[in-house]
Amino acid sequence: MFKEFQEFISRGSVVDLAVGVIVGAAFNSLVSALTTYILNPLIGLFIGQIDLTDMKFQFLGATFLIGDFINALINFLIIMFVIFMIVKLMNKMRRDGSRSKFDENVEETDPQLEYLQQIRDLLRYQQRNDHNRRY
After folding, report:
1. Using CA atoms, how far apart are residues 115 and 101, in angstroms rounded to an integer?
2. At residue 103, does pLDDT exceed 70?
3. What is the pTM (predicted TM-score) of this model?
4. CA 49 to CA 101: how far, in whole Å?
5. Of 58, 40, 38, nearest to 49 (Cα)?
6. Number of C-beta neighbours around residue 52 at 10 A
7. CA dist., res. 30 & res. 24, Å (int)
8. What membrane topology was assigned to this protein in its record (predicted)?
9. Which has the higher per-residue pLDDT, 95 or 61?
């Protein structure tokens, strides 16, 4: 069981996922600090309150604390914008035909040649099956 676990952990995708989670958590704390210590005071200057976490309103005797929700909303928007920009950059790199260092050895093939090779392989497969059915 330990060997299976070791093989599972040593796969590249698991390690990549772990790195992504750690980087995401660090990025989240950075965005939270940006929102709490820089953006909130700036927004607070315009609406007359310095600390948005204390922002509340009352309606029919009920008090609604909306400051934390506004902080979470600002964090969400910042993170989603950064993710959007990363995905946009990755899509542009794919469209431009940019290759990684691993793709340098891959040769471009003619699509017609690929189709002909697929037809050839299919015919070989069918011929083998027909030969096996006769006997």
Report:
1. 27
2. no
3. 0.50
4. 52
5. 40
6. 21
7. 10
8. Multi-pass membrane protein
9. 61
